[in-house]
Amino acid sequence: MWDDGVTRYNFGPQHPMNPVRLALTMRLVEDFGLLRHLDVAGARPAGASTLGLIHRSDYIDAVRRASADPRDTDRWHGLETEDNPAFAGMHEAAALIAGLSVAAAEALHTGDVQHAVNFTGGLHHAMPGSAAGFCVYNDPAIAIARLLELGLERVAYLDLDVHHGDGVQEAFWDDPRVLTISVHEHPRTLFPHITGRPDETGEAEAAPGSAANVALPAGTSDAGWLRAVHAVVPELLADFRPQVLVSQHGADTHFEDLQAHLLLSLDGQRAGIEAAHDWAHRYADGRWLALGGGGYAVVDVVPRLWTHLVAIAAHAPLEPAAALPDSWRQTAYALTRESGPWRMTDGRTPRWPGWEGGYDPADPVDQAVLATRRAVFPLRGLLP
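Structure tokens predicted for Acetoin utilization protein AcuC:
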């Protein structure tokens, strides 16, 4: 999914969420010749009724007002804050990103495609009545709500961003049709601070066990992160049997990202994408909607990771050792004055011990995994 208009989602030159990351990703997809393996589609911006599947009408109206006149803002709706400063055209740009995710979901529902990617999406922090964490409209939640509206009975959401997927969890907290799984840095050291702990497992009466949160300690690197992901996600997906898997692939888990404290390499992040792709085929009949998310190393990390995402979804994976095209590096320098990376790898070969081999009660990562399994698995009739 692509439309040049997504680059107008722009909080300003000093904001970490620089839209150049989107333009550079699309250019890298093109320069690697991936367009011959996929269809590129646009979509209309999401309208009020579609946005209203998740967001309150008073909030949508506030975004429209701020979009028309950034001086007409309301802090009660999370606008004109340091994270979410209002900008001209904000509603239109955010609604376009949401529209791309919704169109991707609809294409999966009709069977027109098996995999769909909107790396411009994944804006998982926006709440029904407020902007939050650089996110104006919550496109993952809106896309999931659209799938439910179309009649699906089970949708799984996997969030691999460094931050907790709080807005999506909030949207479906009491809905047993949606399983939300988030693997993130522990909220005691990172935004959003107040959610994302393992004891958050869904509304106790209506949807017990519909939320799973793996809160990892700061400093977790490839082996620990991948061990945690594989120790929780596949068993939950096998039990839930989703009709569609929606996954969010924020690039901010990388060791170069200055907004957080996990230490993944590009190779570890890529292994997470490969796992999500495999799980979509194994547990969701291949129906996979893959989204972007956070990521603020806008030249070195984001374009490479999301180009891997597109290539894996297109069943045309790139060799990690592949050199970045000179044409792309020239574009990156022209736009950012950064020379950019040379290869599609950080030179790592991630390996991790499987959970089935046992756990170390003194290891902080294993403590996090065990806390999640003990909180959620029994609610679903699974052994912790």
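The mean pLDDT is 97.
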